[in-house]
Amino acid sequence: MIHRQLDAGSGIPLWAQLAEVLREEIEVGHFDERFPSEPELVELFKVSRSTVREAIRYLRSEGYLEARQGKGTFVVASESFDSLRSHRFSLAGRIAESGLEEVARLLWKGLVYDADLAKSLELSSDEFFLIERLRGSRQESFALERAYLPRVNPASFDCVDLTKAGSLYSVLQSGTGITVTAGSDEVSAAMPSEREASLLGIAEKDPVLVVERRAYSRHELVEFRRTTLVPARVRFRAEWGR
Amino acid sequence: MIHRQLDAGSGIPLWAQLAEVLREEIEVGHFDERFPSEPELVELFKVSRSTVREAIRYLRSEGYLEARQGKGTFVVASESFDSLRSHRFSLAGRIAESGLEEVARLLWKGLVYDADLAKSLELSSDEFFLIERLRGSRQESFALERAYLPRVNPASFDCVDLTKAGSLYSVLQSGTGITVTAGSDEVSAAMPSEREASLLGIAEKDPVLVVERRAYSRHELVEFRRTTLVPARVRFRAEWGR
DNA sequence: TTAGATTTGTGCGTATGTATG
DNA sequence: ACATACATACGCACAAATCTA
């Protein structure tokens, strides 16, 4: 078994030492069949249960472990890329930093038909309500946002102010009664189309960040959103540490 | 002040109830000038400090709060971009999905001198130990990784196997005794140089994702890493809710 | 510069609740 | 019904970082 001595006076917190030992064992594949229970770890490493739980909490937040009440703690199948695995990225931009007011300009809204999109989203109907907005400060734009809403009543959006920077979800909630419960985001890089470059005020040779979002309400897709961002004006940032 | 009664028998954990109350107050801007200290919240809501800390921990993980030892807890200025604020992005690629073995090829290691980099990192010396690796499966590469280590003994890396996919930090730890405690990542988009495109096996007109990492050991920079990724082969993905 | 107060971080102990098998 | 597992909640003490008098 493991049995590595933790050093209380090393300046490194006990839970961090324990997490490091466990992380190494996980990466070697030592716990693939079974991860020790909390009481077992308490006994093995001679620390309190709070310390064990703190270490496990950290490894969960890093994506190494997941826990199920009543069942146990399990190793998550490893991603290939070291420690870029599960940091919390947030969008940070000059607008937020400088405190400039953010504005959203409505470019277009209305029904569109897109068979390819419907197919990739596994939807039976190719009808979408499209909301296209340009976001930025008064001086410059940093994002072009296209939200595709399947199966909604276009009239729901007639009286809604879409120029506010606020969330589309509150609009969805108040306009249609739909509550978004889960979703996914995917970040990639791409080249802008001529129109995108023009709207964002960049050259066609400048690359952009693309975020694709799927939002669900009770396992049902309620929004597909593609946001095109200017990397010089806004970027994703994660801070991590103990 | 606040005073909302929490209900112990409601089925909802006390910390979650407290977090919800605090979140609402935060969004109204009630705590913009000062967020209550832990003992104050204990007194206000008549719960234990662990419960208070659990609620604050959650709000920190959601990006609403940040805490500094000795200073206090503070409301994070809301990012301009709705709800992309605190998702957990992890790198997902074809390699991990298909279960192919990941390999790392050492391209170069040795001392380099870069005054611009030293200046941007606010370092007095422009001497770096550079480790350049190409990562991918046997069939194709998906990332070019350049790690700049200031002030390390080059001999530390003589006997180390850098072709393993494993973390550089364990190398740092064993080779130099340095323990990485904190850091930040920033994701952007860029065009590859001729050499990068060639090494990654892509066209020069294909955009790439760029991740810049800063790693610290006790407030001291110990690594600056720039990773260039091929978006078609690997991307950042976050799932939320549920 | 120093000393003390304040605030979050770490770590211990205990007890009880809830989900699972 | 029972044992096992993690989740919640309480209390206490001291350490480390920060601010202030």
Automatic annotation (TrEMBL), chains A, B:
SMART domains: HTH_GNTR, UTRA
Entry coiled-coil feature ranges: none
Residue ranges of domain HTH gntR-type in the record: 12-78
UniProtKB keywords: DNA-binding, Transcription, Transcription regulation
Protein name: GntR family transcriptional regulator
